[in-house]
Amino acid sequence: MSLKTLSGNDRNKRVIRRLLRGGAPQLGRPFIFAGPAGIGKRQFAIAMAKAANCLSLTPGQLAEDQPDSCDQCPTCRRIDAGAYGDVTLLLPEGQSIRIAQTRAVNDEVFRPPREGRQRFFIIDDAERLRDEAANSLLKTLEDPPPTSTIVLLTSQPDSLLPTIRSRAPRLNFTPLALPEMLP
Length: 183
Prior knowledge:
Elements: H1 10-22, H2 24-27, E1 30-34, H3 41-53, H4 74-81, E2 87-90, H5 99-109, E3 119-123, H6 131-142, E4 148-154, H7 162-165, E5 170-172, H8 178-181
Parallel strand pairs: 1-4, 1-5, 2-3, 3-4
Helix pairs in contact: 1-3, 3-4, 5-6
């Protein structure tokens, strides 16, 4: 799946494409993807990671109307399979995201990409960050390296610490409109 094949949230697609065209300096910051559960925030984050690392495209090559990833190269297929070394999906362990998990992100985020151009750390259910885990991310969110992107996915953005919300631009995702659901 590429951004072009995802349905809805066209404004967010335009914002993400603009960031991708800017390359590492534009991508090297945290983002909050906010919206109801099951709306596709994770798919958008993965599509963003694919577009940033696709072997068929070079940075700055994305035009507004062209696909952003090929979905066919080894990189795209490995990202889809969850087997790409530069894309990390962080899920809650039990009821929450623990400090050991965020410390691991802090350790990895400053290392250069292993395989691609841009590293992605996608933190799903970010509202489940324990306070100490959230606090451990603050320095990294404030000054991440240009080769790492942190995406916090949440259905409850107001439950994130204000210090986290102030460090990351927020993209709001909305349900599909009826015409977008019809074939």
